[in-house]
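Consider the record:
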Amino acid sequence: MLFSIITINYNNSEGLKNTIHSVINQKDADFEYIVIDGGSTDQSKSIIEKNSSHIAYWVSESDRGIYHAMNKGILASQGDYLLFLNSGDVFKNETILNHASRECFNNLDIYYGDLEIEKNGIFSRETYPDTLTFSYFYHKGYLPHPSTFIKRDLFNRVYYYNEDFKIVGDWDFLVCALCKHNATYRHIDLVISKYKTDGISSNSKMRPVLLKEKQISLSNNFPLFMEDSKELITYRNLFQMRRYKLLHKLESNKLARKVNSVWLRMMSVMFKTK
């Protein structure tokens, strides 16, 4: 099985250097490396050229954004499974691809591991659920791009990344693949990559854009579900209220339930409610 590791970069020479080093030093793994640079004006191109003997395909030219660059990487790839390790992201260690190859053995569409996140010098492991649902993605859930192996053929069956998006193109693709096209998947109990929270998707100023793009994605892919989803969100928020939890607890006791019923009838008469 051949992995295609795809790195996109724009004017992040230091991060690119770390990412390239992380990839080309992988041991006992069958992979090709692809680097898509957006025509950087820093030292990125020279770093790519210095490491070109380890890179199957690379280009340094202007593009139309993050997801256009990723799509260029997909088109250039030959691997069975693709993983996007963008500049600044690194693999957990030098043998992680070897370990991952042992997990990707039953030809599923998506394999995803965990992520080690660095924020202000503090490292923490972000663990993802074994079972995925539409509700998970709707309520801020996502799969970690630097730790997700995607079958190359899945892009042909679903679609390539939507280049109109600035932030949620990968989220949009995965939600559609899993919830609409029933892509098969499995969670790998491994930290695949390390990720720094300094990218565009982690920028709090971009949150309004992120939320707007998610709504556009959901409306495009699941238009008939949107009104139902809003209603379900309302009820979910209600169920999480402290008052509801207390009422639910009282209802589990026979005597308390009877007292509560009498009290509610009295209240309905007092306030003329049905």
Summary: The beta strands are 3-9, 31-37, 57-60, 81-84, 90-91, 110-119, 122-126, 148-151, 185-196. The radius of gyration is 23 Å. The first helix runs from residue 13 to 24.
